[in-house]
Design the sequence.
């Protein structure tokens, strides 16, 4: 019985083939700028990259995500899909890879700066909403709280005779 294979561009793709496609289109410098993996920066070569990716699961997943969503430009899935490893994700039948996203080192730097700014803005908005929802204590209520704590600790002390 033949099983229906999931629609995933990574299915049956070897790491060497994936890296050679990425290097042919982007070059080592752009891959390093986008992925920040030293195997693309320090004396980059195919054998060293393949060996590193085979030994390092988190790096392999990072390259596979880049391959899926930047190079093949597959649609991003829901949060349940992102819980899966890139090779385990499936796409609806009929969805085909698109042309690779053109990148330059400068464009990658701009994208990272925008992502950092968006993240900082999100943190700022969350801290502001947290501060407004947390109860505020006046200085008198804080002193009352500390007085009560002092009384409790004095009650727990053994009495001296």
Sequence:
């Amino acid at each position: 019985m033949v099983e229906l294979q999931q629609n995933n561009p990574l299915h049956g793709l070897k790491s060497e083939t994936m890296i050679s496609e990425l290097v042919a289109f982007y070059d080592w410098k752009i891959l390093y700028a986008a992925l920040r993996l030293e195997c693309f920066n320090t004396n980059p070569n195919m054998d060293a990259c393949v060996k590193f990716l085979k030994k390092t699961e988190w790096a392999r997943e990072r390259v596979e995500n880049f391959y899926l969503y930047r190079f093949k430009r597959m649609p991003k899935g829901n949060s349940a899909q992102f819980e899966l490893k890139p090779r385990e994700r499936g796409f609806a039948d009929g969805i085909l890879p698109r042309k690779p996203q053109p990148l330059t080192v400068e464009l990658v730097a701009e994208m990272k700066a925008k992502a950092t700014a968006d993240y900082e803005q999100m943190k700022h908005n969350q801290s502001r909403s947290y501060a407004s929802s947390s109860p505020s204590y006046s200085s008198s209520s804080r002193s009352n709280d500390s007085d009560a704590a002092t009384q409790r600790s004095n009650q727990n002390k053994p009495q001296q005779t």
